[in-house]
Specification:
The structure is a single chain. By secondary structure, the protein is α/β, with parallel strands linked by helices. The chain contains twelve helices and 24 strands. Strands 9-8-10-11-7-12-13-14-15 form a nine-stranded mixed beta sheet, with helices on both faces. A hairpin with a 2-residue loop joins strand 3 and strand 4. The chain is elongated and about 75 Å long.
Length: 482
């Protein structure tokens, strides 16, 4: 029997192919090409087969075509004010830092992606969370990369209570969904999304189609049954997520676990969080018994500050809305060669030379003919930071004039070519972090000084407008010496 035109169109629609960039997710290509016109990357265009209609009779696609990622769609609109209020129900993960990152606990029915480089601790923190949560609700740990014996060995090594955690070694999303139904699972971990696949699709696990459609189904499942899901994601060699960009639109939260310069510490940063904020960063310490919360990250870097000495100055550093207190050191010494030495660690070399020129022209401090060294203790990289200008100038002045600042003195601010001290972002947050760590004297740009800072009792603020106004700040060190 000959096919009708409409039947032929349906068949062609199911077999339609398109091409997508696996790096940025742009899918507007009718055919393969070597370079992505959106992100400029080479050899990232891959074939993308559209998923079959979700109305087909398979377990993984039993939801209707009208279902979105967040659940069943509504054909009728309503006033936003008429939408029923509902408070987000949450539960604790057993980690105060992780709960704070999630917005006060993990929301029921939320889907979160945790990515990171190999060895960052993704599986470690998730098995810890699974063991804690399993004490109060059915929990399923799905792994497509390790054996059940390996996961158990990790839990035993970390001294965790593994008795209530269900383990499953499969990437078949149909089987995962069936097991969730059988156990009435409320907390699901899939390690990793690159190993998950829908058997109804021809693509291999890890392909753009499988990653996207598997995540989309798991999200619909989570919303329908109130299951909290954590997906583990791989990273590319440049640190970006190895998967389609559309995945970030499907999930509720995307978190990245990174290793600090000191391999002992890990930081987790949210790139997206529908149930919380993204202006918060959590710090963990990798110990023999797992990842432990670090409630005061600044103590990591301040613990190296040592005794009071010339050239030392604390600095309130802000990056990605995270404030850290670090110790800066400057050393000015007589040169023994015709060309003075310059040595910097963690600071931009050209910026140091610029500050020396400003000190000579705007302050009358002639130290350019001397050997000068600058260091950020703890390995923090400030080469792109401008707020370290003021504490760096003060550390060099301290070394040059042999002035010792008290350990409870801290500074931040950018210095312009005219000698003006310019304000920096997150000034209030920097002050709050300094006060929390016991600093009593805070030297800051005048435009960062606001009335709300006067609420801090016992804190001496020294606002400066120009580097030539640093006399009062230097007097603090002189009083300390006397």
């Amino acid at each position: 029997m000959k096919q009708t035109i409409n039947e032929w169109k349906v068949v062609m629609a199911k077999e339609k192919k398109s091409y997508m960039c696996s790096d940025c997710g742009f899918d507007g290509y009718p055919r393969w090409q070597g370079q992505c016109s959106e992100c400029g990357q080479w050899n990232t265009i891959v074939e993308f087969k559209a998923a079959k209609s979700p109305t087909q009779a398979t377990h993984s696609t039993k939801t209707t075509a009208r279902s979105g990622y967040a659940g069943a769609a509504s054909a009728q609109s309503k006033k936003l004010s008429d939408v029923k209020d509902s408070e987000v129900a949450r539960f604790s993960s057993g980690s105060k830092v992780l709960d704070r990152l999630m917005g006060g606990g993990t929301a029921y029915g939320s889907v979160n992606l945790l990515s990171g480089s190999p060895g960052a601790g993704k599986s470690t923190i998730l098995i810890q969370t699974a063991c804690f949560v399993s004490q109060s609700m059915p929990t399923l740990y799905v792994t497509g990369e390790e054996s059940a014996e390996q996961v158990k060995a990790r839990g035993v090594r970390l001294g965790l209570n593994i008795n209530n955690v269900n383990i499953m070694t499969s990437g078949d999303v149909d089987e995962i969904a069936a097991e969730c139904d059988r156990l009435s699972v409320k907390f699901l971990i899939v390690d990793s999304i690159q190993t998950a696949f829908l058997p109804s699709l021809d693509n291999s696990p890890g392909s753009v189609t499988q990653v996207k459609e598997s995540a989309a189904f798991l999200t619909r499942k989570a919303k329908a049954d109130g299951i909290s899901v954590f997906l583990v994601g791989h990273e590319t060699k440049d640190g970006s997520f190895a998967g389609p960009q559309t995945l970030s639109h499907i999930i509720d939260g995307a978190f990245k676990l990174e290793t600090e310069i000191d391999a002992k510490y890990r930081t987790m940063k949210p790139n997206k969080n529908r149930y919380g904020g993204i202006n918060v960063i959590g710090t963990f310490a990798m110990m023999s018994d797992g990842l432990k919360d670090v409630t005061n990250p600044s103590a990591i870097y301040l613990e190296h500050s040592g005794v009071e000495a010339t050239g030392n100055m604390a600095y309130a550093y802000s990056e990605d809305n995270r404030t850290l207190l670090v110790n800066m050191q400057g050393l000015v010494s007589d040169s023994t060669s015709e060309k003075p030495e310059r040595g910097v660690i963690g600071i931009d070399y050209k910026r140091l030379n610029m500050l020396l020129a400003i000190m000579r022209t705007r302050m009358g401090v002639m130290i350019g003919f001397k050997d000068i060294y600058a260091n950020v203790v703890g390995g923090v990289n400030l080469t792109r930071d401008v707020g370290c200008d003021l504490p760096l100038v003060m550390s060099l002045m301290s070394s040059h004039q042999e002035i010792v600042f008290p350990n409870d003195t801290i500074a931040f601010g950018e210095v312009g070519l005219n000698g003006e001290v310019r304000p920096v972002r997150n000034g209030v947050e920097r002050v709050e972090e300094a006060v929390l760590n016991g600093f009593k004297t805070i030297i800051l740009p005048k435009k960062n000084y606001s009335k709300e800072l006067t609420n801090h009792q016992g804190i001496a603020f020294i606002p400066v407008e120009k580097v030539s106004d640093l006399g009062q700040a230097m007097e603090v060190g002189r009083r300390q010496a006397s």
